[in-house]
Design goal:
146 residues; alpha+beta; 4 helices; HIT family, subunit A; 5 strands; homodimer
């Protein structure tokens, strides 16, 4: 769709790293300084809502969401994982999969809530190092799906 | 789990209305004055993350999430539906399914973001009336699943 940033499908290096691309969707490791390990799955075609997909397409997409959740749990060892498909600002189907920690910048709120604290820099640095292992862990898990 | 408000499974009338209860989960129409039509699906047992469920359980739960999304789209005619499984404050698996409108109190942010505007009372009243049809629409759709 014209003027849709997700249809444009351009990922600037400062925005994140493309982890995996399939026929239906792509997975990005988001470069968020407060939330290392934040991943996003973007449906390639312009669709607004999950219930606009066929049952098979929903299954494909949710399987990937849960693969990423599982990889985040194993690699990042978070206190909690947050899953969300909002799209109020960009109504092109995409899922946020976010590792959360009791000392992260927004805990216990959502990552769209008011900032509550500053995570120690040394802690963030350790998490950024861990997040470097995520792309390979996600790709390995996806290869097991087929 | 002890001290978990969702394990306690007590729904006060002012919190919302029980729409449907199954062996695995229950569906509540949340009484949120700003967001008529807001629904929540709660997994009955204490589980933290989607990837702790079996593949079959995930499918059951997500089928219900999409049934509710679809019913919300038909009954409430929102601009967008938001789906989220967060659980930072209550780490017992539950999904929020929320109809969103360009004039709602938090648009275009998440419903956990800063309030942006006041929806006109007459508009909210119409939406509250529509939301009264949701429980029956959801139950009818679930009966078609089986």
């Amino acid at each position: 769709m014209k003027n849709c940033v997700l249809c444009a499908d351009i990922l600037k290096p400062e925005e994140g790293e493309l982890v995996w691309r399939g026929d239906d969707c792509r997975i990005v490791l988001v470069n968020d300084p407060d939330l290392p390990g934040f991943c996003r799955i973007i449906w390639n075609h312009h669709v607004g809502e999950m219930s606009e997909l066929t049952f098979g397409e929903r299954e494909v997409l949710m399987s990937l969401v849960f693969v990423v959740e599982d990889a985040i749990r194993h690699v990042m060892q978070p206190s909690k994982v947050n899953l969300a498909s909002l799209g109020n600002q960009v109504p092109h189907l995409h899922w946020h999969i976010i590792p959360r920690y009791a000392d992260d910048a927004f805990f216990p709120g959502s990552v769209w809530s008011t900032r509550t604290q500053q995570t120690p820099g040394s802690v963030l640095e350790v998490r950024k190092q861990k997040a470097r292992d995520l792309p390979e862990a996600i790709r390995a898990a996806i290869s097991q799906l087929h």
